Amino acid sequence: KDLRKQVERIVKAPGAPLKSAPFHTASTLELLTPGTEVLIVISTPYWYGVETRDGQHGWMQRDQLELLQ
To answer: Is the whole-model pTM more than 0.85?
Structure first.
């Protein structure tokens, strides 16, 4: 349970794009709605490599995610 808390995040309002690579110019795979839960797979200084519940992999900026309450 502690480990899940370390790797689970939710998307902040107003939602955020799931990117194909850790760059602003990368293509958007899908727009995630606020409250969407994601699992962190890779962590960089500014981006998280994440996986959604339906198995989609992509990149999100760190400041677009927050800890589960």
So the answer is: yes
Kindly give, in sequence order, each residue whose CB lies less than 8 Å from that of residue 3, ignoring residues fewer than 6 positions away: none
Supply φ then ψ for residue 34, to 5 degrees: -55, 140
- In this structure, the number of other CB atoms found within 10 A of the CB of residue 54 comes to 6
3-class secondary structure, 59: strand
Q: What is the pLDDT along the chain (69 residues), one digit of tens a residue?
A: 566 667 999 999 999 999 999 999 999 999 999 999 999 999 999 999 999 999 999 999 999 999 987
Q: Which amino acid is at 51?
A: E
- Helix H, strand E, coil C: the string for 39-55 is EEEEECCCEEEEEECCC
